Amino acid sequence: MPFSNMFRAAWSSEERLDGKTVVITGANTGIGKETAIDLSKRGARVIIACRDMEKAKAAVKEIIESSGNDNVLCKKLDLSDTKSIREFAEGINQDEAKLNILINNAGVMVCPYGKTADGFEMQIGVNHLGHFLLTYLLLDLIKKSAPARIVTVSSLAHSWGSIYLDDINSEKSYDKSKAYSQSKLANVLFTRSLAKRLEGTGVTTYSLHPGVVQTDLFRHLNGPQRCFMKVVSPFTKNSVQGAQTTIYCAVEPKLANETGGYYSDCAPTSPSRKAKNDELAQKLWDLSCNMLSITWD
Ligand SMILES: NC(=O)c1ccc[n+]([C@@H]2O[C@H](COP(=O)([O-])OP(=O)(O)OC[C@H]3O[C@@H](n4cnc5c(N)ncnc54)[C@H](OP(=O)(O)O)[C@@H]3O)[C@@H](O)[C@H]2O)c1
């Protein structure tokens, strides 16, 4: 946490979202679920996009009970399969009159080597390429709904990342931490590039680090790493605290004219040097379009 942020009062806002529609990926648990509860309390229509419909239905029940807003629903989205992403987006474009806030939240961290249905390494595939395609497919609806926001949950781990343009799928060698950092750097670069492309449309973009948050994200850690997490747990956030920067980026009125930036602890902060490299951002953009067989200039 930047030193200056340690003495700031916790952020809060009474901002209402009545009449607004929100999509949140991976909101059946963790940071995403807490974000969904908060935004439903503000009166939004909230669609949680999840891969496991049993978990998703249980989460919808909990979100409705906690928020008192029954305008909450779940739809199937598996970000590790472009077919599922296309089906999900088609459903949203058909059924929804607007989409004011898209929250690209879902993520996997340090999983064993695996590939998505389309042959992408799992972490870059789900965390970056899945959300890249989802945003592309929903963008016309989002633009029509302006003012609108696209919030992408990255991580401080982006700072240790590089984009391996010649081996983005880690086929030559796989280091699970490097692959996670690569995907989270990709989130920040994507947000920056997207902001430039959306200038003048009324759609603004944000990426963020939520903090170190006690969630299921750590499911793939080994024994010693889990012990370490237990030791540091008093210094970590619970999921309500971990959701605050996402909620801030989604609703804070003062951010309405800011776009492309990176946030932590409900405040703007500087991402790593690589995350501000526009040449790298463009190369990643071109590679992503190429991998997904889409044209997005
Ligand atoms: N927790 C932290 O300390 C921390 C720190 C920095 C950044 N973050 C970022 O915060 C975001 C939320 O993570 P979290 O901590 O809330 O973790 P979490 O509790 O594990 O939640 C991750 C969510 O993503 C979903 N997901 C995973 N793979 C998916 C796929 N292929 N398709 C659709 N959904 C999928 C999970 O669904 P299932 O429940 O079905 O697996 C779950 O709903 C992630 O982007 C993560 O990188 C977290």
UniProtKB/TrEMBL annotation:
<dbReference type="InterPro" id="IPR002347">
    <property type="entry name" value="SDR_fam"/>
</dbReference>
<keyword id="KW-0560">Oxidoreductase</keyword>
<dbReference type="Pfam" id="PF00106">
    <property type="entry name" value="adh_short"/>
</dbReference>
<protein>
    <submittedName>
        <fullName>Retinol dehydrogenase 12-like</fullName>
    </submittedName>
</protein>
<comment type="similarity">
    <text>Belongs to the short-chain dehydrogenases/reductases (SDR) family.</text>
</comment>
<dbReference type="GO" id="GO:0016491">
    <property type="term" value="F:oxidoreductase activity"/>
</dbReference>
<dbReference type="InterPro" id="IPR036291">
    <property type="entry name" value="NAD(P)-bd_dom_sf"/>
</dbReference>
